[in-house]
Amino acid sequence: MPTVEETINTLKDMGFSEERAKKALNKTGWAGVEAAMEWLLSHPEGEEEEEDDDEPMVVEQQPERAPLTAEEKEAKLKELEERRVQKRLEREEREKEEAKEKEKKRMEDGKAMSKLRQELNDQEIKKLAEERRREKQEAADAKRKVLEQIEADKRARQMEREAAKKGSTPVVPAPAPVAPTAKKNYDEAKIQIRLIDGTKLEHVFKSKESLSAVRLFVEMNRPPTDKSDVKLMTSFPRKVFTDEDLEKPLEILGLAPSAVIIQSK
After folding, report:
1. CA angle, corner 248, sides to 244 and 250, nearest 5?
2. Residue 114 pLDDT more than 90?
3. Is residue 250 part of a domain?
4. 234 found inside a domain
5. Residues 90, 84: Cα–Cα separation, whole Å
6. CA quadruple 33, 34, 35, 41: dihedral, nearest 10
């Protein structure tokens, strides 16, 4: 059964005002659209009688209006029905256009958000790669200096042996001073985790925290549908972490100051 609002809207779609639609429904005891429409056709606007006044009114006598014939009533009903159908089609077409505009805007917003997210991810990956390259370069420089010192020591010992054979005191050149390479201590480890479904998580841990803290972070932030055991690995260098590794600090595992960890199946 249609609601009151739907019934009134149907009469409004046929061209009647909301006030007259309500009055017709009241007059017909809310018997439905058809009964209200019969009353409206029999009582054209401006000809309804005033019924609720306590004081008598002098009503100007108006010529009686001939009741509609069955053919006229049918034609009027057909006209009103066509008008109602037309209005409904116009409303549906308008709603379709509005839905298309909303979907278009939603897709554009989604593309813009995806592009921004991708740009941020690319920037973060570049930053991590740059940090890795810098660390490797520092390690390579330190190794080169150590090798140079070893070669200088070899030459000094060779000169000592040659001088001992000749019975003279060798003049040993002073080795070039090598600046001690202090191993850097990082207090924090910025970890980016790639989940199985492609989602990326990021968090800053203390470098002395164990790898189990990272696994717990993944378990708390992964999708609810992922019920698998959390296994962690790195792709470069490739390493699958074992249960023993979970108890080791991030700095010992080489994951400080930054690293990318992958959740493996």
Report:
1. 135
2. no
3. yes
4. yes
5. 10
6. 100
Q: Is 235 helix (H, G, I), strand (E, B) or coil?
A: strand
How many structural domains is the chain composed of? 1
User: Cα(174)–Cα(153) distance, rounded to whole angstroms?
Assistant: 10
Per-residue pLDDT tens digits for 250-263 = 999 999 899 999 99
Task: Specify if 211 maps to a domain.
Answer: yes
pLDDT value of residue 208:
93
CATH number for the domain spanning 244: value is: 3.10.20.90
Structure tokens at 159: 């000169």
pLDDT at 64 over 50: no
Domain range for 250 is 188-264
Express each pLDDT in 197-220 by its tens digit.
889 999 999 999 999 999 999 999
**Domain assignment of residue 242, yes or no:** yes
